[in-house]
Amino acid sequence: MRVEITPGSKERLEGCCHRFGMKQFAALSRISEWLSEQNEMVQAAVTGLYPAAIRADIAKLILKKMAAGKK
């Protein structure tokens, strides 16, 4: 799998991996696995498919839905 990230993101990912003592491949594998297990609304939010103007509202809706599911 090929992954394209910005130079700034690469530096932050390297820092994160260094702090947790893991390889970038392992971190990206875990992130991919987590994302694939989320519902469509969360996947769309994480991948930036919602317009910036409604992102805060979407985040609130997701949190409400998650809280309702735990009851």
Q: What is the oligomer described by this structure?
A: single chain
- Domains (count): 2
| Percentage of residues assigned to helices | 55-70%
Report the span from N to C terminus: 38 Å
On the 0-100 scale, what is the average pLDDT? 92
What percentage of the residues does DSSP assign to strands (E)?
under 5%
Radius of gyration: 15 Å
The structure class reads mainly alpha
Principal-axes shape call: globular
Number of strands: 0
Following the backbone from N to C, one meets helices and strands in this order, namely HHHH
The parts where pLDDT drops under 50 for at least 5 residues are none
Structure report:
- There is one protein chain.
- The protein is mainly α.
- It folds into two domains: 1-37, no CATH class; 39-71.
- The protein is built from four helices and no strands.
- The longest helix has 15 residues, at 55-69.
- It is globular, with a radius of gyration of 15 Å.
- The model has no long low-confidence stretch (mean pLDDT 92).
What brief labels describe this structure?
single chain, mainly alpha, 2 domains, 71 residues
Q: Short description, anyone?
A:
It contains 4 helices and no strands. The protein has helices spanning 7-20, 24-36, 40-46, 55-69.
What's the layout of helices and strands?
Layout: H1 7-20, H2 24-36, H3 40-46, H4 55-69
